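hey can u check if this looks right to u? its 172 residues, i copy pasted from the old doc so theres a chance i mangled smth
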Amino acid sequence: MPNDHPHQAPPAAPGPYGGPGQHGAPVPYIPSPYNAPGSYGENPQFAPAPPLNMPSSLRAARTTTFVMVGLALLASVAVGVTDGARGAGAAFGGNIFGVALLVLACFYGRAGRGLRVTSIVIASVQILLGLSGTLRGNIGGPIALVGAVVMVALLSQASAGAWFRRPRTPGA
């Protein structure tokens, strides 16, 4: 039956292990299922690309910090006008870690994993201070509480983690 299809080339001789091809010929890379690393390492061509733009959850966390500190400042000025400097200090005192979060948020575009963890820890302390201020009837307490809860929720998302784990070029 080798002449049944004269327009086709004759079948190739089996390779050394029963497969087609010649002994020593390069074998094409076949990625493992679900883009997982194969038994001989990863092919960088199929590796997931790092995020190029800051994710929206991180931009929202940064904006939340700016709004939270701005509202706390306005609230402390309003209390200062009516109750004096002591009242203004008390109104802003519950938001003192918000200022630290504001400084950290300025570096979200460049810094690494430690900045995210530090921001989450400071926002968690801010939650406690905001809760304490809210229970004492301080006008700045709810601002601190809501802002810090939103910060922890946004910074805990997977997209934010991927942003802070991305590879960076030195000096950038």
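The first helix runs from residue 56 to 83.
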